[in-house]
TrEMBL record:
Polar residues: compositionally biased ranges: 280-292
Gene3D superfamilies from the UniProt entry: Type I PLP-dependent aspartate aminotransferase-like (Major domain) (3.40.640.10)
One GO term of the biological process aspect: alpha-amino acid metabolic process
Name listed for the protein in its UniProt record: Aminotransferase class I/classII large domain-containing protein
Amino acid sequence: MEKGNVASTSSGSGVLSDEYYLSRLSAVSKARKPSPIWDLFSVEAQPGMLSMLAGKPNPSTFPFTHITLGVKATPTANGHCSDLTATTDLVLKDDDLAMALQYNMTAGIPDLVKWVTDLMETVHCTSDEASAEQKWRVSLGPGSQDLLYKAFCALLNPGDTIIVEGPTYPTIIPLLDAMGCHYAIVDSDDEGMSASDLEKILSTWDSTANGKPFPKVLYTVPFGSNPAGITTSYTRRLEILQLARKHDLIIIEDDPYYFLYYGDAPKPPSYFALDRQHQYQHQQPENRQGTGSACPPSSPGELGGRVVRLDSFSKIISAGFRLGWVTGPSIIVTAIERHNASTVVQPSSLSQMVLLKLLQTWGLKGFLDHADKTASFYRERRDVLKSLLERYLRLDPHHENGGGVGLAEWKVPDASMFFWVKLNLGLPTSEFDAGTSPIGVEGGKEGEGDSTPFIRDTAVPRGVLVLPGKAAFPDGRETHHVRLSFSLLSNDEMEEAVKRLAGAIVEQQHARKLPQVEGEHKTQSGCVEYQEQEKQVDDEVIVELAFPAEWDELWRTEGRTWF
C-alpha cells in the first residue's frame, strides 16, 4: 500500500507542509488555474483604487431602493424571549444594498468571512496565533452540499478510494459514483465509525487483491450522523484521528448538525479542534455549543492539518439562503475556491448581506443562544417521536411468548432530525437481533425483509413515507432500516404517521403467512383494515392493532415465533 511520508512533510511548525497538500490535490484541481479577473478583486478593494477591471453592472440600474426584513426578537441566554411577538427590522440600503446586489469575492463578503472565522476560533478553540501557524482559513460557498462536492473534487481522482461509514449520508453516493470512486465501508456502532474495523481494513489493505488503490480520504458526519443519528464519542474521535495520522488520510468532517446537538453528555470536540490539540480536558461548556472547553496546544510530535471541515447555516438560520462554509488547510480551501470561481462564481451576495446584518445584530453570544434554542426545539421534537415509537412500535418485555421484539427497534439520537429505525418485517426473531450485528447489517435470505419494497408496496398505500435504509449504503446492501424525520410534522401528524407505519408493518408480517385478504376487510386504498386497542402494561399504556378475525387466528396459532 502507498502512503505519504508523513515524517518528511512537516512545515517545521507541527503541521503538514504546503508541499504535502499540493501532492494530495486531484489532477483536475492541480490543473485548474485562478481566474485572472477574480484574483484581482482584492486589489480592486484597496482604498483609492480606480477600477476599470470587471464588467460589474452599475448599481443605479438596479430597481431596488431598500430591503426590509422583520426578525424575531433576539433570544436571551436561556433561549427564551420576553415578548414572543416582538420583531426587529433589518434594513439594507445605500452601500449595504449596493453590495447585496453586486458581484463580490469568491470566498465571500470579507466582513462575513471574518465573522465566521471568529466563530470558528471561539467554538473550535483555534486562536489567532494558531490560525497563522497552522495555515487554515474559512471560505463561504453556496451551501455546504456544494462545498462538500468540491472538496471531493479537490482531493479525489477517478478510481481513488474513499472511506465512508456505514450507513452514510445518502446524497454523497451518486456524487462519488459519478466521480468513479471506490468505497471502503466501515460499519458503525453506538459510538460512531468502528475504529477497530477501520484499523483492520487499512492494515490488511491489498490493492492487488481488491483492485482498489489505498484510501486517501475519510468522510464522516460526526454529530447526529445522517441517517443513523449517532454522535461519535470523544474517545472514538481520538482513535479515528490517530488512525488517520498513522495511515496518512485526510478527514472530511461534514458537520451540518454540529449546532443541533442536544445530548445530555458534554459536547465532544470536533475533529477539526482535536487535530490541533494533543490532549483535550473537556470542561462543562457554557452552552451546548462547547465554548467553555479548554484547548491545550498540540504536541510537537504530531502533525496537524488533516481535517477539512464543512459547516452549514441551513439547519439553524435558513435553508433557502444556500450558505455554508469550509474550514481547512489554505491550499485545499483555495482549490475549492478556484472551482467555485469557474462555476457559481460566488455565494449569493444578497443572502450574505442579510445574514451578516443579522449576525452583527445578534453578536456571537446571540448566535450561540439562538443555536441552543434551535437545538432545544429539535430535542422536544425528538422526544415526541420517541414517545410515539414507544407507544405504537415499542419492545414489549411482557409479551406472552417471553419477550418479543415488537414492531421495530431504534436508538435515540442526541443530535440532528432523524431516527434510524429497524423494522421487524416478519423475519425469524433470531435474524432480527440488532445486538449481534453492526448498525444496518441484517441476516436473512437475499431480498427478504428489505425496507424498500415494503415502503413502496405497503407503507405508501397507507399514506406514510419514510426513507429506505438501503439508500445509505454505497454497496446497495439490503436492510430493514428506515430513516424517520421529526423536523416538520405537527404532533398530531407525527402520531398519525407512526400509526400508519405500525399498521403497515403488521400487515406486512401477516402477509407473509396470508398474502391475500379480500372483501369487507379491504379499504379503498387496498390496505387491510385494523382497529387500535389500548393495553395496560404496568404504569404504561401501549397500543395493539387488531386485524380481521382470520388473521388474528392465524397470528395466535402460527405467527408468534416470527413476531
